[in-house]
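Fold description:
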Amino acid sequence: MIVKILNIVVDVVVRNLGNIKMKILIVEDDKTRIKWFKEELIGFKVDIVETAKLGIALCKSRKYDLIFLDHDLGGEIYVPSENENTGYQVAKEIAKSINEETPIVVHSHNPAGAKNIHGVLNQTQLIPYSTLVTIGLSDKIKETFCSK
């Protein structure tokens, strides 16, 4: 009888594991990209912010399974990492947060900015946005991060 109950409990737990949604943070300011991320990540729990300040706040208060991080925010392009509203500033805070070991995809087209982020967070993967669009996200995320 106890074995039967334990098997039922295990079945319920295993079934519910499939319902756990990955928590993903996206730090991005471009409306077209935001729309694309939303469409690609249906079925995941996604937070999207457009500023470094909001990204930092969420990274300090919530644990994520995956973070997508752009460097140039505020509608600007090819900005220095020292600017206040950049993904680099978010990365510096991630390194000191509960997300310090969270996998991060840097999808910026600013190579210097992306390199600076990678210098602060060695768990980053540098994948420009155009490449993300080409490969698609949903299945790749499941393959890469959910099979572990």
About this structure: Helices lie at 2-17, 31-40, 52-61, 87-94, 111-120, 129-135, 138-145. The two ends are 33 Å apart (CA to CA). Confidence is low (pLDDT under 50) at residues 1-17.
